[in-house]
Design a protein that fits this description.
Layout (H helix, E strand, L loop, with lengths): L4 H22 L3 E13 L2 E11 L5 E4 L3 E7 L5 E5 L3 E3 L10 E10 L2 E10 L3 E10 L8 E13 L6 E4 L7 E7 L7 E5 L3 E5 L6 H15 L2 E9 L6 E10 L4 H23 L5 E14 L4 E12 L5 E11 L5 E8 L1 H10 L4 E4 L11 E2 L6 E2 L4
Antiparallel strand pairs: 1-2, 2-3, 2-6, 4-5, 4-7, 7-8, 9-10, 10-11, 10-14, 12-13, 12-15, 15-16, 17-18, 17-23, 18-19, 19-20, 20-21, 22-23
């Protein structure tokens, strides 16, 4: 028997109702974060308001208050800065980098359903002001120097152009790039872990190229310009915060005399410490009779006189010898030539042979010998 059109319509409606009821029994309304409202009036806090909705099978949306909701704030490295449900949330902006991205994630739970949404803001623009002082080189190997940096950190006022000084708990990571002007590709990178320190770059990458460029420039133009660029990790990439320039020139004759005088003083003190015997020393003097300097080997050769007095019988001892020593205080050697009978007896009773060798005679940077203004004699400190 053929079905009437009325019966066909009723059958289709029944199927539609059954299908709808099955879907309603086996699904739940969608739950999601409908909007995230962010308001910021200062760098150190942010207001976050979350709105949630659910939608049924037919797409009808209904606002809903979740059973639980919270906001998490992350820095650019995804380290958690804060978690809470209060509308106003703190931001440790002073400790963050220059315009560092801050991720704000709002989440909620309703009827075992979880929904989250993310937004981002930026930390304050920051800058570093530096007062710097660099001494380089302190020897002719061009591998040692000293630095001093005084830092001040600033951040830009919120909504303005002015800057205000801040004091973060930790200073940003910093390092120096040292290079001969025009040869930045062969720069030596020097870690800066303290505001005042000495450095030795002899084992750092590119040191040999760096030294080669200094010597080449000295030969070509009798000077070498070395730039020291200070970089600070204020944000995601290092920022150049200061540049110091040192112009290296060959030492003058007067500077050579001053350097040799210091080395002779140190060597003379070393010799006398070996010859003073049990009773010690009274007065002591050292004279430079003649000297020369060999630039290729950086070696001083000097004929020096030593005169000293015993504390016991006030006897005077006099002797002449040849001192050879490099400008950095290494490879030192003194050779006996002649002396008074008292000095000769003392020498051969205390020393085997005619030669004394020294360990490094390097002294503190900035140390200078005391000179007798009347006689030009180098006096050993303490006598």
């Amino acid at each position: 028997m053929r079905e009437t059109w009325q019966e066909t319509l009723v059958r289709k409606l029944i199927l539609i109702l059954l299908f709808s009821s099955l879907i309603g029994c086996n699904s739940r309304p969608d739950f999601y974060v409908s909007s995230v409202h962010i308001r910021q009036t200062a760098w150190d806090s942010v207001e976050v308001i979350l709105f949630f909705e659910e939608s049924d099978f037919f797409g009808r949306r209904t606002p809903i208050v979740p059973e639980e909701y919270w906001t998490t704030i992350f820095d650019a490295a995804y380290d958690t800065l804060y978690v809470g449900s209060e509308p106003w949330l703190p931001i440790p902006d002073i400790e963050l980098g220059d315009s560092e991205e801050i991720l704000i994630e709002g989440c909620g739970i309703s009827n075992s359903r979880r929904a989250c949404e993310q937004r981002s803001v930026r930390a304050s623009p920051k800058r570093m002001d530096v007062t710097s002082s660099i001494i380089f080189p302190v020897n002719e190997a061009y591998d040692r120097g000293t630095y001093r940096f005084d830092y001040s950190m600033f951040r830009q006022n919120y909504g303005g152009e002015a800057w205000k000084r801040i004091r973060p708990r930790n200073q940003p990571e910093t390092y120096l790039k040292a290079f001969v002007h025009g040869n930045e590709s062969d720069a030596v990178e020097i870690p800066v872990r303290r505001t005042r320190n000495q450095f030795n770059i002899s084992r750092f990458p590119h040191y040999r190229d760096f030294r080669f460029h200094i010597k080449s420039s000295m030969m070509d133009s009798d000077s070498a310009q070395v730039d020291f660029d200070l970089y600070a990790l204020l944000g995601e990439i290092p920022t150049l915060v200061s540049t110091d320039t040192v112009v290296i020139r060959p030492k003058s004759h007067a500077e050579r005399i001053d350097e040799l005088a210091l080395l002779v003083e140190l060597a003379g003190g070393n010799i006398l410490d070996r010859l003073k015997g049990f009773f010690g020393l009274g007065k002591a003097y050292v004279f430079i009779n003649d000297w020369s300097y060999q630039p290729l080997t950086k070696l001083y050769v000097a004929e020096i006189e030593l005169h000293w007095q015993s504390d016991y019988q006030s006897e005077w001892y006099d002797m002449i010898g040849t001192l050879q020593i490099k400008s950095d205080g290494t490879a030192g050697q003194y050779e006996w030539q002649q002396g008074s009978r008292t000095a000769e007896r003392r020498w051969f009773s205390e020393i085997e042979g005619l030669t004394i060798t020294f360990d490094s005679l390097r002294s503190d940077v900035g140390m200078r010998p005391r000179l007798d203004s009347e006689t030009g004699t180098v006096k050993r400190p303490g006598f």
